[in-house]
Amino acid sequence: MRKLFVAVGGSLLLASPLANADIVGVGASVSYWDSETSGQAMTGNDVTDLENDLNLDSDSNTNATLYFEHPVPLLPNVRLNLTSIDQSGRGELSTGYGPISAGTPVVSDLELQQIDLTLYYEVLDNWVNLDLGLTARDLSSELTIKSVGGLNASKTEVDAVIPMGYAAARFDLPFTGLSVGGELNAIGYGGDSVYDVTAYGQYEISLLQLQLGYRQISVDYEDGDDQLDIDIDGPFVSAGLAF
């Protein structure tokens, strides 16, 4: 499956139009994402509901982005992004999961980390901005479920490096510092799929960029006997600097 992801992703990059920035540009941002998780985790034939059975709540989110754009022809621009999510909960299993029986009170912890390396080209660069490219996403996720006061525990892990098509568009309102935009990383093949969608409004003053928006990550991925089919979404605020 991973070889198929690589093949499809590589084709997307080769198909991207070649363009480049007029000057060197560097930017960085950090954001707070108020995210919620829904969906299911599976191990073997066992299934648990992350929202209704585990009652997962957000403990901490880390989101940071760094990009570098240049005027060198043919070479892509570079963007790095880190997303780290830690959620925990206390609930009761409606069905058995691994060695844990149905009706057992449990505590659980979900850790999900994404490290993205994106190579992209600027297709349009005026009041309408359009970037196209390819993202290599290092996805690591671990769900641990433990019975309360007992010794039984189950661990569900998904670990993969996934190429994804990348597109970003922004529409500037001239002379106002205001703009609206969106970003998409996506891939789907053979029943597995990963989508990461962001929509935002931005205000820019001097070097400072402030964003308010909404982000949704959908992961439906099988790794051996373990599978995650989850959605993580919610509003975010972001502050960054662009040089």
SSE inventory with pairings:
Blueprint lengths: L1 H13 L10 E9 L2 E8 L2 E4 L7 E13 L7 E16 L12 E21 L2 E20 L5 E21 L4 E12 L2 E14 L2 E16 L2 E17 L1
Q: How would you characterize the overall build of this protein?
A:
The chain has 1 helix and 12 strands; from the N terminus they run αββββββββββββ. It has 243 residues and is mainly beta. The chain has a single domain, classed as Lipocalin. The N and C termini lie far apart (40 Å). InterPro entries: OMP_w_GlyGly (IPR026387). Residues 1-21 form the signal peptide. This is Outer membrane protein. Keywords: Signal.
> How is the CATH topology named?
Lipocalin
What is the SS-derived class?
Answer: mainly beta
Order of helices and strands: HEEEEEEEEEEEE
| First-last Cα distance | 40 Å
How would you describe the oligomerization state of the chains in this entry? Answer: single chain
Rg, please?
A: 20 Å
CATH hierarchy: architecture: Beta Barrel
Mean pLDDT: 89
Strand elements, count: 12
Uncertain segments are: 1-17
How helix-rich are the residues, as a percent range?
Answer: under 10%
Task: Please work out how many helical segments DSSP would assign.
Answer: 1
Structural domain count:
1
Major sheet: arrangement of strands: 1-4-5-6-7-8-9-10-11-12
Strand content: over 45%
Biggest pleated sheet:
10 strands, antiparallel, barrel
Regarding CATH, which class? Mainly Beta
Global shape: elongated
